[in-house]
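User: Please predict the structure of the protein below. I'd like the answer in structure-token form so I can feed it into my own downstream comparison script.

Assistant: Understood. Taking the following sequence of 182 residues as input:
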Amino acid sequence: MKGKKKPMFKFKVKAFAAIAVMLWSSIAAAGTFTVSDATGFITGNVGDQLRADASKWPFDVHIIVENALSFDALEAEAHGAVDGPNVVVIALDATHHKIVTRFGTETGVKPGDFDSISKAGNAHFRAGEVVDGFEAILLRARASSEAKVAMSVSNAPVVIEQGMSGWAWLGLAVLFGAVVGI
């Protein structure tokens, strides 16, 4: 009977080891989350709340809040903060209400989604919902990284301008002349 219990014991040990490896890998896969706020925009427990949710994101996240001298300076700051291939950077100029996002090459975020990701949190920021604003951006980035193709479509209206040809104008002129009796 002892021989029959031994395989079950080995199975339990292997199952426990497999579960431990899966848990460890999910913890190890959780991204790092850094916040650099030179303006005091992120107040109270907002930073703690954002860091607590770091395990949601399949990439490292760097949030930068500053009063940039120009939009180009904000873009340069965001670009410089991409310090690895699996990094998403959100740079926010709270004074001028500008947001720049930059992505590492291995995040999987599609270039066609860059603009829509940057704009994803605008409504939340306007309403004073800072955590929701950052999370909206990160949710959109994660969705893009998991999609096979870019999810964004242009929000610019499509205008089809089609004028009449010269022959159509000539035909109208002849018709008008016939009606008026020229």
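That's the full token string. The longest strand covers residues 87-93.
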